[in-house]
Amino acid sequence: PMELLDLDEEDHRLAYDVISNETLWFVHHGLFDLTREPAFDDDWWDAWAAYRRVNERFATAVCEHSPKDAAVLVQDYHLTLLAPQVARERPDLSLVHFHHTPFAGPDGLRVLPPRARDEMLSSLAAHHACGFHTAEWAANFTASLEQWPVGDLPEGKGAAVFASTLSTDPHDLEETADSSACDAQVAALDDLVGDRRVVVRVDRMELSKNIVRGFSAFDLLLARRPDLRGEVVFVARCYPSRGGVAAYARYRDEVEREAARVNERWGAGGWQPIVLETDDDFPSSVAALRRYDVLLVNPVRDGLNLVAKEGPLVNERDGQLVLSTQAGAFSELRDAVDAVSPFDLSDTADALAAALDRPAAE
């Protein structure tokens, strides 16, 4: 059964938007411009207190509803403070925390106020085990604990750190790919692009996904390769995310401006270089993955990135994956992709060109 918690609305907003998504997400993905942000004032500390209260509500629910001697799986950066209360009230439970984002090492965590950083690290260490998508993220957590030791812990707690990947259920994905709704979207995409080759990306419109630099790299490719003008379409399915966070609204504007700039510069004769689609429609996204000649996944940093694994599962055109070395999935896919630095536009343009020029059999 599912047990839903009726959280205080303001506590939820502060915990989810201010702490989880404006602070911890930015820390773990290395998104802060440290010349300007963050700045931790009284309002921020009020939000941290709300984040703690939300974690306490979940801890209370875990204690009330968990069977004796159960294993409790705690998911992600929204619930990093839950373990100490559970450990005190229900020592029979085995607690495992899994972090689905990257985990910042000591250099990244130095941004957090020491009191908040130490509370988060000691709370995470109070689990029996902490899991991450890659060995690198796990090592960052271990290095952070070595940099800032958390003191004595109950016996048996904090002993295990592990790495484990994640994949989409291929049968569920193939069911969508084989659906009539998806077929209709493939046909619509074919009508849109004709016999042109297609570069695709499928992302939440979120800062770590690095969408603007992806468009800028495509712009550079078109400047270098006149032969590709009119011959390649960049289909970007980028749906809005976290509308309550001001930085995300600003980033959406940047994404739309950059797409418009590239289209203004190069579009001609009925050819639109970048087709930006912002509706959150899963069959349409899977259709794009079926249709790509090149799939661009270039995050600044990603815990894993499932699109990099989903695209090759359903693609029907011998498509090539251009993948950021900072995506967690790179550790698994490195031998089968064109690797790019997410910050290097020249490198990304080179990789897009190589992928487009590569024979289908290769």
Which structural class best describes the helix and strand composition? alpha/beta
> Tally the helices: what do you get?
14
Strand content: 5-15%
Lateral arrangement of strands in the main beta sheet:
7-6-5-8-9-10
Task: Determine the N-to-C terminus distance.
Answer: 49 Å
- Per DSSP E runs of 2 or more residues, the count of β-strands stands at 10
Averaged pLDDT, please?
95
Q: Taking Cα atoms only, what radius of gyration do you get, to the nearest Å?
A: 22 Å
Mass-distribution shape: elongated
Spans of 5+ residues with little confidence (pLDDT < 50)?
Answer: none
Helix percent reads 40-55%
What's the SSE pattern? HHEHEHHEHEHHEHEHEHEHEHEH
- Biggest sheet: strands, sense, closure? 6 strands, parallel
Describe this structure in words.
- The protein is α/β, with parallel strands linked by helices and 362 residues long.
- The protein is 48% helix and 14% strand.
- It is built from 14 helices and ten strands.
- It has helices at 9-29, 42-65, 83-89, 106-109, 114-125, 135-147, 170-177, 180-193, 211-224, 246-266, 282-291, 307-314, 330-333, 345-357, and strands at residues 71-75, 94-99, 129-132, 160-163, 197-204, 232-239, 274-277, 294-297, 320-324, 338-340.
- The strands form two sheets. The chain has a six-stranded parallel β-sheet, with helices on both faces. It has a four-stranded parallel β-sheet with strand order 1-2-3-4.
- Helix 3 (83-89) links the parallel strand 1 (71-75) and strand 2 (94-99).
- The longest helix is centred in the N-terminal third of the chain and has 24 residues, at 42-65.
- The radius of gyration is 22 Å and the shape is elongated.
- The protein starts with 8 loop residues before the first helix and ends in a 5-residue tail after the last helix.
